[in-house]
């Protein structure tokens, strides 16, 4: 059920991240933190959606609980070639997360 996509190629995790539902995001990540977070039809992954909306809680939850390979790496290019970090900054939604710890984890496990 978690991996089912709608007409926009959004999963339940996309929707939960977009709407800021931390409890649902946590539940979905606990159920399976290694399945690939595919981009929807406009190129957004759940991490991108959480960052774009400035949700420090959701960004940290996704980074801390997902294997980097499931996310496509920190370098995932979303809409207009923006990464999740670009999205957080560009939309004026500062996400105060130590991104470097995740970038290092991605480099080590790749």
Description of the molecule:
- This protein is mainly alpha-helical.
- The chain has one domain: Ankyrin repeat-containing domain (Serine Threonine Protein Phosphatase 5, Tetratricopeptide repeat).
- The chain contains seven helices and no strands.
- Helix 2 packs parallel to helix 4, helix 3 packs antiparallel against helix 4 and helix 3 packs parallel to helix 6.
- The longest helix has 11 residues.
- Keywords: ANK repeat.
- This is Ankyrin repeat-containing protein At5g02620.
- InterPro entries: Ankyrin_rpt, Ankyrin_rpt-contain_sf.
Q: Helices and strands: which structural class? A: mainly alpha
Put simply, the count of helices is 7
* Cα end-to-end separation: 28 Å
Radius of gyration over all CA atoms, rounded? 13 Å
* CATH class call: Mainly Alpha
CATH superfamily: Ankyrin repeat-containing domain
Mean pLDDT: 79
**Sheet bearing the most strands, described?**
none
Q: Architecture, CATH level 2?
A: Alpha Horseshoe
State the shape: globular
| Helix percentage | 40-55%
Summarize this structure briefly.
With 110 residues, the protein is mainly alpha-helical.
Descriptors for this entry?
110 residues, mainly alpha, Serine Threonine Protein Phosphatase 5, Tetratricopeptide repeat, 7 helices, globular, disordered C terminus
Topology of this protein?
Elements: H1 12-19, H2 22-31, H3 46-52, H4 56-65, H5 68-71, H6 84-90, H7 99-109
Helix pairs in contact: 1-2, 1-3, 2-4, 3-4, 3-6
